[in-house]
Structures are given as structure tokens and as C-alpha cells.
Amino acid sequence: RMKKNIPLVIIIIMIGLIAFSAVSGTEKKSPVKDNEIVKFKAHQQVEKLQKDNFKKINIVEVISKNFGYTSYGKLKKDYWTARILVSKKQIIQAKDLLENNKKEIDEVLKEISNDYQKVTQEMLDECITKLNEFEFTANTDPNTNFETRNRIFMLRTQIRMAVQQYDSANEAITDRYYVSSISLCRSAKSYAI
Predict the structure, then answer these.
(1) Are the CB atoms for 179 and 56 separated by under 8 Å?
(2) 95-121 burial, b if ≥16 CB within 10 A, otherwise e?
(3) How far apart are CA 2 and CA 128, in angstroms?
(4) pLDDT digit string (tens) for 95-115?
């Protein structure tokens, strides 16, 4: 009885193998599926890039208006061009434009950050020099009172905090966190004043 079922089992196995190879052959990626996957991934990247670039452009614009930088016009234009491409469903082109826009924004922020760093360093050097002169004068004067010594201590503490903020700003520049670097330089300057 088992010998009669063997040809039937072989036929079933062969039909299964043929069906399996036919199914796996049709599951190969087609260019249309690949294109859709690329568009899907690009759409996710575009959403994030739009948010990040918009925030950074606004920061550049505020700094530019306050301190005279003029290189943000092209950044805005490229950003809005990419937004138009998104509305036209040209996602991949928009992604490429936004990625390039991000690089340009980072270059402008790097330039601003380096300028802030230089100005902050000069301010800290001046504050430290003046504090050292004030402290020397107070230490050589026998009539220096407790309030003056306390004031020197408070100023010294403020300068230490400013230097810590400045050092953190330098680390942020090294790590390419230019917006953070600018904020830390501003904080250092506020302590130094």
C-alpha cells in the first residue's frame, strides 16, 4: 500500500517545489517597488529636514538682523524652493535640495559660531585682566573691607562660570553643534558682563 502512495507523494512534492519557485521568482524587487521605497524613505527625511532647516534658518535670520550677517537670503530661498518641490510631489529632488540647504546652513552657523567665540574670548580676556587689576589693588590696600573682598570673590566665581560656558561652547563647535555653541557663548558673555 505504501508503494502505491510513493508516486503520489513525489508528484505532490514536485508540484510544491514548482509552485514555491514560481512564487519566489515573482517576489524579486521590481524597479517600481524600489522607486517607491526610495520615495518613502526620502519623504521621512524631508519631513525632518524641513523642521530642522526651518528652525536653524530662523536662528540665522535673528542673528543676522542683530549683528549684520547677510548670508541667510539664499538659505531661505533654497528652503522655500524645496517646499515647493514637496508640494509638487518631487520628494527626491526636495530631499537633495534640503540636504544641500542643511550643509549651507551649517556652514553659516559655523562662521557665526566662530565669530561669537572670538568676541567672547576677547571679552573674557578683558574681564580677567580688569579683575586681576582690581584684586591686586584691593590686596595691596590695607583699608580694603569685607564687602570689597566679597565682591572680588563673587566676580571671580562669575568669571569661572563664564569660562566654563566658553569651554563648553568650544566643545560644541568641535562636535558641530553650532547653535548650542552660539547659545553657550552668549551665556558666557552674560556671566562676564
Answers:
(1) yes
(2) bebbeebbebbbebbeebbeebbeebe
(3) 100
(4) 999 999 999 999 999 999 999
